[in-house]
Amino acid sequence: MTRPLSNDLRKRVVDAIEAGESCRSVAVRFGVAVSSAVKWSQRYRSSGSVAPGKMGGHRKRVLEPYRAFIAERINQTPHLSLHGLKEELAARGVKVSHDTVWQFLRREGLRFKKNTVRP
C-alpha cells in the first residue's frame, strides 16, 4: 500500500481549486490524478482539512466472543464438522463463512480430527 501524498501538496491543490481553477487543470499542473484533486477538494469543503484519513488497521475477530461456546461444542461433539459448527453459530445469530470458522480454529489451536486408526 502506498503512502498518502503530502499535506502541503494537497493544500496547494485545494487552494488552486478554491481560487477558481478547474480540477482538471490543477491536476495536470501538480501532476496528480483528477479524482484525487476532486476528493481533496470535497474533503476540504466538508471537514476543513486536507489531511488523509486513517489507513490500514486490524479488523476485529468476529468469533472471539464465541470462543468458549466453540471450545465446548468441540469437546462435547468431537465428530462435529466445520459446516455443522457454522450452522450452530448461525442459529445463535452469527453469520460467518466456512473459511472464517476454519481460520479461527487454526489460530486458537482448537483441533478436531476424525481418526479411526487411533483409539
TrEMBL record:
The entry lists its GO molecular-function terms as: DNA binding
- Keyword annotations for this protein? Paired box
Q: Which residues are in the Paired domain?
A: 1-108
Gene3D superfamilies attached here?
Answer: Winged helix-like DNA-binding domain superfamily/Winged helix DNA-binding domain
Record keyword Nucleotidyltransferase present: no
Its Gene Ontology biological processes? regulation of DNA-templated transcription
PROSITE patterns per the record?
PAIRED_2 (PS51057)
One Pfam match, by short name?
A: HTH_32
Q: What is this protein called?
A: Putative transposase
Origin species, per record, is Rhizobium azibense
Q: What is the lineage of its organism?
A: Bacteria, Pseudomonadati, Pseudomonadota, Alphaproteobacteria, Hyphomicrobiales
